[in-house]
Design a protein that fits this description.
The protein is mostly helical. It has one domain. Helix content is about 80%, strand content about 0%. It contains 11 helices and no strands. The protein has helices at about 1-25, 30-35, 40-70, 75-95, 105-115, 125-160, 160-200, 210-235, 240-260, 270-285, 290-320. The longest helix has about 40 residues, at about 160-200. The protein is elongated and about 70 Å long.
Amino acid sequence: MAVELSILLPIFLILSVIIAFSIGANDETFSGIYGSRILNMKQILILAVIFAIAGALILGEAVSKTVGKGIISDMSYSIVITILISTSIWLILSSAFGLPISTTHATIGAVIGLGIAINASLDWSKIIELSIWWVLSPIIGYIVTFIVFKLLQSYKQKHLNGFQSYEKAEQRFSYIVLIIICITAFSRSGNDCSNAVGIVVGIGEIQINLLLLITGLSLAGGLVVLGRGVIKSVGTITELHPSTAFSAQIPTAAILFLGTYLGIPLSGSHMLVASFVGLSKASRTPVRKGLWKVVLIWFLTFPMAGLLAILIYFPVAAII
């Protein structure tokens, strides 16, 4: 077993680095800061790197173990490599078309598809439990953002008088939303690293602290190299100011932090996009055209990741 692991370990690490880099490249957490013009891109990237590494190291273990263990039985090396490769391919294909996806969904979709194909024992109760959270989290994000925006509007109308008063309030909100987004980035890094190393953790015998460190550095690398494009794109979904960015980030920060603490893999992308749509509806401002493509890719992620895993498994199993 030790010899086999020593041979396959470089493959595991390379695939984990590729997935983590792709996740970082698609991380739109700081888009609210960019869209509301609180910080410039260089300042945003510095903060993003810090919290990507810290979140992976401090919070990453719980969710990684949830994804890596308990969903599929008899986790072999060929299964691990298959799921990592299929997740990487779907991430790359989606990114090539400029469409944000949930890497958590891609990973679990691959696990389910492969589990069915090879007749492995799947824990459907756990899968259903996770699915309920995936459905509820964007709905909650939309509703809470809508309500928070309306409450803030009511407060402004009652207590703010004149442009100077409004500017002071927006300045205060800029500090608040910056803190909230930093917390979100910290939580999301801990949650997202499960997609890069969760399956590897499932086979055991590999030092998880080393994997989490490599994942954090890879997430940071993706953010610096390609992440600015995604931040700009999502940050312009709808018109943002510090106070409206605050309305959208509150549910994302709260739900993502709670989910990470409880070891529940969630989609930060789904929550934030849903929050921005809720904000757009509440403020009656238009959203960017083409939102239907984002929703479509969300629905396609599960079956396509599962299909890729099935197609890749048998040649990989024959080699391994």
